[in-house]
Amino acid sequence: MADLDTGRMEAIKNELGDSSRVLCFKCDVTKEEEVKAAMYKTKEAFGTIHVALASAGVIGWTPIISKNSVLNTKHFEKMFAINVFGSVYMAKYAAMIMRDNKPVNEEGERGLILFISSIAGEESQRGSEAYGATKAAVNGMTLPMARTLGKYNIRVATVAPGIFHTPIAKDHPAEVIQMMMKQTPMGRPGKAKEFAHFVQAIVENPYINGGHLRIDGAQ
């Protein structure tokens, strides 16, 4: 795990139990050298990397104009630095490590790079121009990256969730959360275990490649 929140990482590590199988790195994903260091320290500890998951992200409400304000372009840039460039840095070094892997199955697969996007990448809400643009960028690089890395038998896919019970959801205004609930036929946010099962299915299925896959309760 690589994050700025070391306390949260340690809590997850303790929850998982076997600490010998978990490494935690304080890492700012906007800094390429820190991402590189985390990736190669992981390789050093475990021998290689077979699955790399880019899940760092921030959300924010950035209307191009409103009654009393205009878009803060610095905030727009920060969101791209975390949501897009952080994912690119991870993918870059994951691919460099994975291409040297021995095949892990009869299909010759060497690794999986998995991004976390959002349904906002296809249909974002008003006022979330920056967030929607960052997730659209992640969606947009998934297929060409999968085609590029295909010759190394490295898969690339993106998970695009709707509203889930996660810390990032707390950054949504309450009225937006209520609106999202009304838009979801199932009438509730997703659960962490449902998300985990979805990711596990992608990891285990060697023919899932190049797509951004929604898990949103038909939101």
TrEMBL record:
InterPro entries: NAD(P)-bd_dom_sf, Sc_DH/Rdtase_CS, SDR_fam
Keywords assigned: Oxidoreductase
Alphabetical list of Pfam families matching this protein: adh_short_C2 (PF13561)
GO MF annotation list: oxidoreductase activity
Identification of the protein by name: Uncharacterized protein
Species in which this protein is naturally found: Strombidium inclinatum
